[in-house]
Amino acid sequence: MGLEKILSISGKPGLYELKAQTRSGFVAESLIDGKKLSVGLKNNVSLLSEIAIYTLEEEVPLKEVFNKIKEKENGGKTQISHKDPKIKLEEYFFEVLPDYDEDRVYASDIKKIIQWYNLLHDKGITDFDTLEQDEAQGKQEEQNEKKQDE
Question: Phi and psi at residue 125, in whole multiples of 5°?
Fold first, then answer.
């Protein structure tokens, strides 16, 4: 599973997996404790696959940041905690994404990113490119089938 079904819900701790859509919103399951909750359309919800981090030149998708953390940590959890002091968090994030925009990316954002990465790692979600790989593979298979039909 990639980030396309992982949600951040404003006002709720942790991350959630999208389970089902309802008339008035959807059902999500907490990655922390497995409890399901109904989320209405009034809640501010973000898909992790749609989040990007500001850099000095562009916006970098969160999955790329997660992949850089994964590379830095050799596939393991982060060396630092999201509860570490602001200066430590910023130093760590600077190692991961050297050109991040310090004026628009706050310490609270860095805390969330580190917390989310570690939570996803604990749940065995470490392949952040799954959806794109599946789509690319599907398109390749489609092209191969068309060539065979010709």
Answer: -95, 95
Query: CB atoms < 10 A from the CB of 135, how many?
Result: 10
Rounded Cα gap, residues 62 and 54, in angstroms = 10
Q: Is 8 left (phi over 0), alpha (psi -120 to 50) or beta?
A: beta
105-119 burial, b for 16+ CB within 10 Å, e for fewer? Answer: beeebbbbbbbbbbb
Q: How many helices and strands, by DSSP H and E, does the chain display?
A: 4, 7
Query: In 10 A of CB 130, how many CB atoms?
Result: 16
Question: pTM of the full predicted structure?
Answer: 0.82
| CA atoms of 113 and 50, how far apart (whole Å) | 14
* 18, 28 contact by CB (below 8 A): yes
pLDDT in tens, 48-98: 999 999 999 999 999 999 999 999 999 999 999 999 999 999 999 999 999
Q: What is the DSSP-derived secondary structure letter of residue 48? A: G
Percentage of the chain lying above the pLDDT 90 cut: 69
Calculate mean pLDDT across residues 120-124. 92
Residue 108 amino acid letter: S
